[in-house]
Write a structure and sequence with these properties.
The protein has about 110 residues and is mainly α. It contains 3 helices and no strands. Bound molecules: zinc ion.
Length: about 110
């Protein structure tokens, strides 16, 4: 999905611009996703340092598991956001390609 966030709210013309285009990304949790992403990256750097320092392999594995579950949770938030916004819009506009793409993505995500 694109990094463009095109949620528009122009009070100047008084028109609600949400849900105008099915292609627009109007996710509400993008900020939370980015925060979690930064934390996961920091965590990953810490694990790298553990390996460089020759830390106990079992400890390293436990930290890798923690990073993995953090990344999975990020994916779940993105998925929820996508379903609640983009997919709802797509159903309203009859854009079945979005559902097809989602099916493919879920297939890979839950593997
Ligand atoms: Zn989306």
């Amino acid at each position: 999905m694109s990094g463009l966030h095109t949620h528009e709210e122009h009070s100047s013309n008084g028109h609600a611009q949400e849900h105008t285009h099915a292609q627009d990304h109007s996710h509400t949790n993008t900020k939370a996703v980015l925060n979690r992403m930064n934390r996961a990256i920091g965590h990953m750097e810490a694990v790298k340092t553990m390996i460089e320092d020759g830390r106990d392999c079992s400890e390293v594995l436990i930290q890798i598991a923690a990073v993995r579950s953090a990344i999975n949770n990020i994916g779940k938030i993105i998925l929820e956001d996508h379903i609640n916004h983009c997919v709802v819009d797509a159903i309203e506009t009859g854009d079945w390609q979005v559902l097809k793409d989602l099916n493919d993505a879920i297939d890979k995500f839950i593997k």
